Amino acid sequence: MQEELNHQPLSLWKQIKEDFIVPKLNDPALDSSLELLFNYPGVWAIINYRIAHRLYNKNWKVLARFISGLSQFLTHMDIHPACTIGRRVFIDHGIGVVIGATAIVEDDVLIYQGVTLGGVSLNKGKRHPTIKSNSVIGSGAKVLGNITIGKNCKIGANSVVICDVPKNCTAVGVPAKVIKREDQNNKLNHADLPDINKEMFEYLLKRVAVLEHAIKKFDGIDLSDEDKELECIYKKFISAMNSIK
Q1: In terms of pLDDT, which residue wins out, 17 or 226?
Q2: Those residues with Cβ within 8 angstroms of residue 100's Cβ, 6 or more apart along the chain or in another chain
Q3: Which of 142, 154, 208, 245 has the smallest C-beta neighbourhood within 10 Å, fewest atoms?
Q4: What is the mean pLDDT of the chain?
Q5: DSSP conformation letters of 86-107
């Protein structure tokens, strides 16, 4: 029943009213409704898109593009009026967000600053991504091509996604890899992302230590002086890594 309600068409005015309510549900930093007028360019970018999208679909394409261009100048976000954006989509901070013409963003998606939903083809057909409902796209992430990010997914900051991501998954890296699969009933905490580079460095350091130990044991090589210096550097490095949260 809830899904049916979500897909009932809304009037433009009702959509705009709903867009103004979304920050109150998603941003604990919001203290006053007055702040929406001056500190939430993502809200204004979505509202400007709503107007331009309606005009674009009625074949007032030049006017729609003019409004989207003006919005780009004012909000520093480039949202093509031909794309499809669902209900309760929230662009947090938002500077640098780009959403291409054939992109589809479903309901209740959270997008952070610097995100690109871009294309990798010059073909006229569908060339931008589809973001399914309840997904989170971390700051600086690039989601490229005609791919699908499934429901309840989380894309890590600065990741580059070029392949489909199944529903209820977390993907990070360049190119992005699925590193975690969640039960759809578990709320995705987008602050809880593993540090793949840190884990790889730890693995390599331990592997080198094992190999050095084997060489010294079987070849009888004396590297005691070098060991002391390297051990000091190693301890500093491990301490620095452990300080990263």
Answers
A1: 17
A2: 80, 83, 117, 118, 119, 127, 128
A3: 245
A4: 80
A5: -TT-EESS-TT-EE-TT-EE-T
Contact 27, 92 (CB under 8 A): yes
Level-2 CATH architecture, domain 2-181: 3 Solenoid (2.160)
Exposed e or buried b per residue across 159-193, where buried means at least 16 C-beta atoms within 10 angstroms of its C-beta: bbbeebbebbbbbbeeebeeeeebeeeeebebeeb
Instruction: Give the model confidence (pLDDT) of 207-216 as tens digits.
Output: 777 777 777 6
Angstrom distances, CA of residue 146 to CA of 13, 123, 126, 181, 222: 31, 11, 6, 22, 58
Q: Is the pLDDT of residue 188 over 80?
A: no
* For residue 71, pLDDT beyond 90: yes
Please confirm whether the linkage preceding 23 is cis (ω < 30° from 0).
no
- Whether the model clears a pTM of 0.85, i.e. scores above it, the answer is no
